[in-house]
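Why does residue order matter? Because the sequence determines the fold. Keep that principle in mind as you read this record.
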Amino acid sequence: MIVAENIKLFLGNEKPKLTVDKLELISGLWALVGRNGAGKSTFLTALSGVNTNFEGEFSINNKKQKSFSPQQMAKNVAVVFSKTEIFGNHTAIDILYLGRIPYQGLFSKVRSSDKVKVAEIIKLLELEPLINKKFSVLSDGEKQLIMIGRALVQDTKIILLDEPTAFLDVVNRKKIVKILARVSQEKLIIFSTHNIDLIEQFCDGILTIKNSKLNLVSEKLDFKKQLETLFENEI
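Structure:
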């Protein structure tokens, strides 16, 4: 569960603050949409605890976000940013196992439960052809799939994804959103996107940013109308 109250996010000099008066999300798949520079990434980084440049208060699973330690946050919220991280010579399966670190002891010893979870996500995302390849040689789309896999391996109740389908082709885009919709039956997933073609089919709701304000739309009948209004009939 995420609760946001009286949030004001700083987007930079000469830009109005992004405001969130009241927001409460329990579960489901939610698309975060808005024009470039509207504050989508800023909102997600604030939710994740990476960005602390805001006024107001977020609560994560009934606990004030600012009271979480980094390890506690990692057990509650998994994050995939739009910019792919650099992992040197690590293989794809090494990256997946990084999602289990919050649950491991001092020496990060892999347990049988870690292996079970990683194997589950490899099967779910059909990652078998990639797991033994060096992460550095993967395409942008393949890297994104692995990073999404790492977030799922982390096994948190909340997952935040910044443009997770940006580098994927149409087939993989639909596959990922469909999987996220299935996973979100037991989790809360928020993902920012410019690919709005699948929102109506798979999402439980949308979060729109317009005129420096974030609003929630939960009625599917309103999705198309809200998106058309948001992008002024450019879609």
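The chain has a mean pLDDT of 88.
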